[in-house]
Write a structure and sequence with these properties.
Elements lengths: L4 E6 L5 E2 L9 E8 L5 E7 L13 E7 L3 E8 L6 H9 L2
Antiparallel strand pairs: 1-5, 2-3, 3-4, 5-6
């Protein structure tokens, strides 16, 4: 059975556009995320092609990860919605 894991990320870069076959712009990120207990993990994720732009700098994301397919989705959150232990780790990285 696949159990999703959730990691919280603060966007600190503009992302990287990699060569794509289509005209859609997808931005790729390699950032460290933290679970609700403050445990860190290096995450590799991207924007959805429909977004067509990078994530806004200094925004917060909740990334859904699974062991089989890695990133399964993301959701933008307000700073106040980030679990306290994860937020402490994210704020210490600045």
């Amino acid at each position: 059975m696949i159990h999703p894991q959730y990691y919280y990320v603060k966007v600190t870069t503009d992302g990287e556009i990699r060569a794509e076959i289509t005209d859609e712009k997808v931005y790729y990120y390699d950032l460290k995320g933290y679970d609700e207990d403050g445990n860190g993990k290096k995450l590799h994720f991207s924007t959805h092609p429909d977004l067509g732009r990078p994530f806004i700098k200094d925004s917060y994301l909740k990334i859904t990860y699974t062991n089989l397919k890695k990133e399964q989705g993301y959701m933008e959150l307000k700073r106040t919605e980030i679990p306290q232990k994860a937020l402490i780790q994210l704020e210490n990285k600045e």
